[in-house]
Amino acid sequence: MQIIEDSLDQLLKQVAIRTNAVANREEVEKSVRDIIANVVKDGDKAVKMYEKKFDNVDLNNLKVTEKEIDDAYAATDDKVINALKLAKENITSFHKMEVEDSFIDAKKKGVIRGEKIAPLAAVGLYVPGGTAAYPSSILMNVIPAKIAGVGRIVMCTPPQKDGLNQAVLAAAKIAGVDEIYMVGGAQAIASLAYGTETIPRVDKITGPGNVFVATAKKQVFGQVDIDMIAGPSEIGVIAGSQAVPSQVAADLLSQAEHDKLARPILVTDDRKLADAVSAEMDRQVALLPRKEIAQAAMDNEGFIAVVDDIDDAFRLMNAVAPEHLEVQLPDAIEYLNQIKNAGSVFLGFSASEPLGDYLAGPNHILPTGGTARFFSPLGVQDFVKRTQFVSYTREALKKEKDAITTLARVEGLEAHARAIESRFDA
């Protein structure tokens, strides 16, 4: 992997905050727009037509039956079931701490103010098919929604010629998905956003997908809410001389194997570590089943930056704003306040990034492409809505009447002022 050794100013100039993968793709935008329009117009008929076209599968029924789900669960290896259940336990215990309460304020005489927090009625989850299956992502999406109190969770995943992945269906059962439909791509997003004869419309859509799925989510935003427009995976590692090169390399490759556009980055103040990690990555990547994908990510998206000191390492990594950030330094937790922009942070030599992908409890649905500067990980708060309320007695309103009418007339909104004054007409 390329090693860059330069001043911090020059390194900051070389670090381009990558925009998400769906930007400026006019052909994709048009294709997705047409798919959404056809699903809105023809419902299930259009969905089945697109499944035949894109996934080469003829579907009589879109819905996965309870028997199919139960059979898949029964056929899944016990070790997988137990691992999923342990992950559920940890994810649940973490996200329960995110629950917010409604509040009410009645400190001022005659005035009641407050905010009511209520769950969304229905949420749709998209689960990719194809070359990789991600049962862990089902847990990460569904469990916070369940904790929030969402009433109906609908999952869409592309049909497969040899049947849906057993672990995916088992994870859906363990997490508590209410309904599963065999539909993928932009047509799945359109179905969830607008509804068809079979697939119910939802209030929010979460979950990762390819460029067509991401573009569809962007286009239906406003009709429904979405979690985020996810791009390729990223990992940043800040490490010093005490880090173990083979472990740093392994952690960088854990994300490089996701996608040819994944971005593995090491920032260190130790040139010897940089050289050793680079050599280790070359050695380890050759042993991976997905070595071509990981090698492309290393060659085209990854780099190792050598800086003057660890403070500069944090400055540079805050500019990158990575999806995942490992701090492989002694007493790593002491550096937490130096981290301004990152999706999820892994502190210490033993906190390898896959810990967060699967089992620790914090969510692995994270902002990418530099959007950790302003986006947050998926959590319980993403599945609730807030409704504010206020109540005034006539006496309390009288005390503030003049201030309200003054501001209304400054804004040229006379009817606003008169609505208040009408309460005091003789």
UniProtKB/TrEMBL annotation:
The residues that hold Zn(2+) are Q255, H258, D357, H416
Q: Domain of life of the organism in this record?
A: Bacteria
Query: What keywords were assigned to this record?
Result: Amino-acid biosynthesis, Histidine biosynthesis, Metal-binding, NAD, Oxidoreductase, Zinc
Q: Which InterPro entries match?
A: Ald_DH/histidinol_DH, Histidinol_DH_CS, Histidinol_DH_monofunct, Hstdl_DH
Q: Which cofactor does it need?
A: Zn(2+)
Which sites bind NAD(+)?
Y126, Q187, N210
Q: Which annotated residues bind substrate? A: S233, Q255, H258, H324, D357, E411, H416
Gene Ontology biological process terms, A to Z: L-histidine biosynthetic process
Q: Report the GO molecular function annotations.
A: histidinol dehydrogenase activity; NAD binding; zinc ion binding
Which residues of this protein are catalytic? E323 (proton acceptor), H324 (proton acceptor)
Cite the cofactor comment: Binds 1 zinc ion per subunit.
Reaction equation(s) it catalyzes = L-histidinol + 2 NAD(+) + H2O = L-histidine + 2 NADH + 3 H(+)
Q: Which SUPFAM superfamilies match?
A: ALDH-like
List cellular component terms (GO): cytosol
The EC number on file is: 1.1.1.23
Record's function text: Catalyzes the sequential NAD-dependent oxidations of L-histidinol to L-histidinaldehyde and then to L-histidine.
UniProt similarity note: Belongs to the histidinol dehydrogenase family.
Task: Quote the protein name from its UniProt record.
Answer: Histidinol dehydrogenase
